[in-house]
Structure formats: C-alpha cells, structure tokens
UniProtKB/TrEMBL annotation:
InterPro entries: Glyco_hydro_28, Glycosyl_hydrlase_28, PbH1, Pectin_lyas_fold, Pectin_lyase_fold/virulence. Gene3D superfamilies: Single-stranded right-handed beta-helix, Pectin lyase-like. Residues 1-19 form the signal peptide. This is endo-polygalacturonase. It comes from the Eukaryota. GO terms for biological process: cell wall organization; pectin catabolic process. It is an enzyme of class 3 (hydrolase). It is found in: Secreted. The keyword Cell wall biogenesis/degradation applies. The active site is at H237.
Length: 376
C-alpha cells in the first residue's frame, strides 16, 4: 500500500491512500488521479461548494460539520463509481424559501454513511407554518436519492425536516438501512414531512427505518420490487401506496411492507389511487404489521383520492395480500375502509389474520372483494 498526501485542490485537507485500483478504467483525462483512492474532507461554510467542485476526484468524501448556505444544494450528483460519502458532526442548512433539495446524491456503487452521533439538521422550525407543501412558505425538500444505482444509504439521522425527506426516483438496487427521521418537534406545525417518497424505481429495500413525522412514513407512487421491513413509523399517515395516478409513471408492482409498527398515526395501512386517473397497483403485501394509536383508519384502501367523493376504476388494485395485520384504532377512528370503483377494479385480495379493532365499523364500503372485509 502506497501512502501520500497532497493539496492539489486547495481544500481544507486532502489525504490520499492508494488502494486496489478501480475495476473500471477511467476512459480519459487524468487517469492517474482518477485511479487513486483519494479521501477528501470538506467542512464549514465553504464545504458544500468545494465538495461539489471536487467530488469526482474523491473516492471518499468526508463532510465534516458542513454549514450549507441558504438556497444551496449540497450537490453530490454524478459521483465517481464506488464513492463513499461520510457525514461527520452536524450538517446544517441556511434558511431560505426555496424548493431544495438540501442534499442530492447520484451515481453507481455509492455508499452513504455517517459517523456515530452525526446528524443532518434541517432546521425545519424556521419553515413550519402548518401548511406543508400546500401553501405558506416555500419549503425545501431534503434528500434526493435520484439515479442511485447499486448503492446504499446507511445509518443516516435526519433531524427536523422542513417538508418531504427522501425522494427516491429513477433508482435501482438501492438499500436504505437504519435511517432515522426525527421531525417530532414539528408535530404541531410541521406538515407533508413524508419519510420516503418512491417513484420509477426498482429493487429498493428500506430496512430498520425509524420515522417520526407528520405525513406518509413511506409513499410509493410508482416502482417495482420495493421492500419496507423492520420499520417504526410514528406521528404520520402510515405505510402508503400512492397516491397513484396523474404522474408520468403510474405503475406500482411487487411491494412488501413487513415486520413493521405504525403508531400514533392517522392511518396504518393505506392505498390511495386518484379519482379519474389511470395506472395500476398490483402485488402489494402487508405482512406482520402492528398498529396502535391510529386516529383515522387502521386500514384504508380508496380509489377516490383526492377526496372527490367518487371512486373510479382507472387504477385497479389487484393481488393485494394482508397477512397478520393487527392492532388498535382510537374510538373516534374507523377500523377498515374499502372504497372501490367496481368489482373488477379491486380483485384477487387475500386477507388472513387481519384484526383491527377499537374504532368504528365503516358503513360506507363499496365493492369489497371476496377475501377482504370491512367489518374486520
Ligand atoms: C427526536 O427529537 C426530539 C427533540 O426534538 C427528542 O426529544 C427525541 O428524543 C428524538 N427522538 C428520537 C427517536 O431520536
Ligand atoms: C404477527 O406479526 C407480529 C408483529 O410483527 C409478530 O410479532 C407475530 O409473530 C406475527 N404472528 C404470526 C402468527 O406470524
């Protein structure tokens, strides 16, 4: 192993360790440098701009207590294959009304981790006005994981997001493990703080997430082969598919939510398709899910989103499995609500060991497929 250090880029610190050569040869320009295993450390208020300038020359990027200026994305898109990004200390973001994102990462074979005790502080309280993304201040989305291929994000702690947190889009073979999202300080004024919004992605696995927020814990708008396992969701709107419809991609297939807990939330299990739109939801499984402190619906499957009053048939929900979904709804809530547009738009449902109690029995279910039940 060869060791050297340099100050080629005028960064606060660069130390470089030559490790095994990269598998794929760099095609052009500075091949020697590109092949080196270069650790770059960026910190403070210049850290974000220096990181985005020099990122492709680094095989390890340490972001040490970076203070991202207002209105700026910590831009880690287009990283060199195999790059490891490590957050260290507290990453902060300046206040400004803008749509973000605060952080954006893309590339192939990318690893994102943090050191013990680190966190990304969104400073959400400066934006929270009770209106989320539906009005009031323009709020920045937090973390774009778009075009991440064969990559992982592990152990990241997100504190007080202004609005939606992870946007996972056009990604393939991405695992998100042991992520904490803690926006519980926003329980009165935070809104639309979705934990994980997923679109047009394949083979996404989210395991061991802890999400304290005020909207969907997970919302899958489109994609295939998506697993959410071993998670805890609190304060939000539940484990959601949808809303589906009205986007470029409206196909959801092969989704599994398993071994997870939803507590102190509006809903537990939730599938929402948009009235009048087209698409499909097929092969969704909820297995070993426990619910407690649910205020609105333990299980809600509706084809009339967004509250138009009419369930339509353009986004069929087929091959839906609920297996061992149990728990309690508050007495003012409703245990199960199924609102389908026709007998063929909700088909092939298999529910076993579904016991949700404590709330009201809905008198307003339509076209409940055989295999499911609105009264439990
Ligand atoms: C979330 O943050 C609050 C302070 O805003 C803290 O009291 C609480 O312990 C944190 N919860 C988790 C799970 O980290
Ligand atoms: C049902 O799910 C709960 C929560 O994940 C689990 O503890 C329990 O073992 C499951 N029951 C069966 C019969 O698999």
């Amino acid at each position: 192993m060869v060791y050297f250090s340099s100050l080629l880029f005028g960064l606060s610190a660069i130390t470089s360790v030559l490790a095994a050569p990269a598998a794929a040869p760099a095609p052009t320009a500075a091949p020697d440098l590109a092949k080196r295993a270069t650790t770059c450390t960026f910190s403070g208020s210049s850290g974000a701009s220096l990181a985005s300038k020099s990122k492709t020359s680094c095989s390890t990027i340490i972001l040490s207590a970076v203070a991202v200026p207002s209105g700026v994305t910590l831009d880690l898109t287009g990283l060199t294959e195999g790059t490891h990004v490590i957050f260290e200390g507290i990453t902060t973001f300046g206040y400004e009304e803008w749509s973000g994102p605060l952080v954006s990462v893309s590339g192939t074979d990318i690893t994102v981790t943090q050191t013990s005790g680190a966190y990304l502080d969104g400073g959400g309280a400066s934006w929270w006005d009770g209106e989320g993304s539906n009005g009031g201040k323009t709020k920045p989305k937090f973390f774009y994981a778009h075009n991440m291929i064969s990559s992982s994000i592990t152990g990241i702690y997100i504190y007080n997001p202004p609005v939606q947190v992870f946007s996972i889009d056009d990604s393939t073979d991405l695992t998100l493990t042991d992520i904490t999202i803690n926006g519980s300080a926003g329980d009165s004024l935070g809104a639309n703080t979705d934990g994980f919004d997923i679109g047009s992605s394949t083979s996404i696995t989210i395991s061991g997430a802890n999400v304290y927020n005020q909207d969907d814990c997970v919302a899958i708008n489109s994609g295939t082969t998506i697993v959410f396992t071993g998670g805890v969701c609190s304060g939000g709107h539940g484990l959601s598919v949808g809303s589906v419809g009205g986007r470029d991609d409206n196909t959801v297939s092969g989704v599994t939510f398993e071994s997870s807990e939803v507590k102190d939330s509006q809903n537990g299990v939730r599938i929402k398709t948009i009235s009048g739109d087209t698409g499909s939801v097929t092969g969704v499984t909820y297995k070993d899910i426990t619910l407690s402190g649910i205020t609105d619906y333990g299980i809600v499957i509706r084809q009339d989103y967004d509250d138009t009053g009419t369930a339509t048939t353009g986004v069929p929900i087929t091959n839906l499995i609920l297996d061992n979904v149990s728990g309690t709804v508050d007495s003012t809530g409703t245990n199960v609500w199924i609102y389908c547009g026709s007998s063929s738009s909700c088909e092939d449902w298999t529910w076993t060991e579904v016991t949700v109690s404590g709330g009201k029995t809905s008198s307003d279910c339509t076209y409940v497929p055989s295999g499911a039940s609105c009264s439990d």
